[in-house]
Design a protein that fits this description.
Layout (H helix, E strand, L loop, with lengths): L1 H36 L9 H7 L15 E10 L3 H14 L3 E7 L3 E9 L3 H6 L6 E11 L1 H27 L3 H33 E9 L15 H44 L5 H15 L1
Parallel strand pairs: 1-5
Antiparallel strand pairs: 1-4, 2-3, 3-5
Length: 296
């Protein structure tokens, strides 16, 4: 009986050890599967991650009623004072909770980029006549609803996967698994930062509409000076400077010819006189050569 009892106890302990080992192998395989699935990408989206995280695919997400729009406007004015127009545009933007991001001026026109909360975009465009005489006005919008919620969903998926990978890292038993999981964590973290930047920029464009303002002075009108007459004095002085510059350059050219041209001509004449002139060294040499050929 004692022997039978010992055999039964041995069988029970052996079966318990086998079942415990199988469970550990299953947990390790599940961890490796989830980590390895992070490397499978489809169009920049970890397909396996989304299944592992248990999220709903983007196609199955219900389309929200509140659309996400990027709205822009463009207004052209004719004004009598650029300084007053700049002040009026800044006050107009401030009245609607906006701000001016860019400004440029060239003396006869100015340009301003104004950011207005999208919730009051229509009201701001309607009241823009307080700035000056409107020559043209246009508005446009781009629907980015799908892009907005796609980024939001993908960010949520990546954060869930990052938390899961961090928990697997704490449970890792060997250096190889730790290095593999850390590599996946770094990749997921970098992608989350990139997507978060895109999401923040898109949200800012949605929340604040951009309106470009362009203002011009009337023809032959300057700031507080009236009609501009041609500056004849400046034109005459410029003409005289051009004439003087021309003759100055001409004199320098003549001097260069005298200083460098005459010596060069003298050297050339001397060489000709030695070789072919009265001395005629080369001329006499050629004559001797021809006489020698005739004697032969």
């Amino acid at each position: 009986m004692k022997r039978i009892r010992s055999i039964i106890l041995l069988i029970i302990f052996t079966a318990a050890a086998i079942l415990t080992g199988c469970g550990a192998r299953k947990n390790l395989a599940a961890m490796k599967y989830t980590v390895d699935s992070a490397s499978v990408r489809s169009g920049g989206v970890y397909a396996a991650e989304e299944k592992s995280a248990g999220t709903t695919s983007d196609a199955a997400l219900p389309l929200p009623e509140n659309r996400k729009l990027i709205r822009t406007g463009n207004i052209r004015f004719e004004v009598s004072s650029l300084a007053e127009t700049k002040a009026a545009a800044e006050a107009w933007a401030k009245r609607f909770g906006g701000y001016v991001s860019d400004f440029s001026e060239d003396g006869r026109s100015l340009g301003m980029t104004v950011h207005i909360p999208s919730s009051v975009f229509d009201d701001a465009m309607s009241s823009s006549g307080t700035i000056g005489k409107i020559l043209s006005k246009s508005a446009d919008s781009v629907d980015v609803t799908d892009r907005f919620y796609d980024l939001d969903s993908r960010l949520a998926t990546r954060r869930v996967l990052l938390e899961r990978l961090q928990s697997y890292l704490r449970e890792a038993k060997n250096i190889k698994d730790m290095l593999e999981i850390e590599t996946k964590i770094n990749d997921i973290t970098a992608e989350i930062e990139q997507m978060q930047g895109q999401f923040n920029r898109l949200s800012k464009q949605i929340d604040y509409s951009e309106i470009y303002i362009e203002a011009h002075l009337p023809y032959n009108h300057a700031e507080d000076r009236g009609f501009i007459f041609p500056d004849l004095k400046s034109a005459f002085i410029e003409f005289c400077e051009t004439v003087v510059g021309f003759f100055t350059n001409f004199v320098f050219v003549v001097l260069y010819i005298i200083i460098f041209g005459i010596p060069i001509l003298c050297v050339a004449f001397l060489l000709y006189w030695i070789c072919f002139g009265k001395i005629g060294v080369l001329r006499k040499l050629f004559a001797k050569i021809r006489a020698g050929k005739k004697e032969k």
